[in-house]
Amino acid sequence: MSTRNVCLIVALTAVCIVSNYALIGLPNVKVADLIVFVAGFCFGSMAGAATGALTWIVYGVLNPLGFSFPVWISTIVGEAIYGIVGGIIGMAHSGKLRAGSRVSACSLEMALWGFILTFIYDLITNVVFALTFGIPIIYALATGWLVPPWFGILHEGSNTILFSLAAIPLIRVIKNIKGGERHGCSAS
Hints:
Blueprint: H1 3-22, H2 31-43, H3 45-61, H4 69-93, H5 103-133, H6 137-145, H7 151-178
Helix pairs in contact: 1-2, 1-3, 2-3, 2-4, 2-7, 3-4, 4-5, 5-6, 5-7
């Protein structure tokens, strides 16, 4: 991996950490999830997973909302999944330059990935939270999705929108900085 790529991955990790602190007042609205996915898309699953894991290693330990070891581990694993899947999706688009592809189709695909990955992340962290604090799993899931303040729905909804609107432009920017590589999901 080139020095430029390592620097970009470190910068993306730093942006993830800073964005988590900056958005602390907006519960479950996280730009970091998108950035980790894009890191995976642009640099591969290992780099994406490392970006996600490092983000939560730092932010999780220095989390203003508190620290719980099992929940911390679940957030590290959950965030790494964004990067791993981002890498898989990036590989799937590699070499398939679709000069005529429409941004709207790609945006819809990214929105779907944002929703699915966030649902998985929330499921993992809610179950671990329930087990850690002796809360019935069904109650933890219900408070995440069905009972106000609907943190899971807010998380999944905001990520669906963020992935839809920002994934493709962010991928383009990172690819251009990386060296002008072309990617499959573009409107050239």
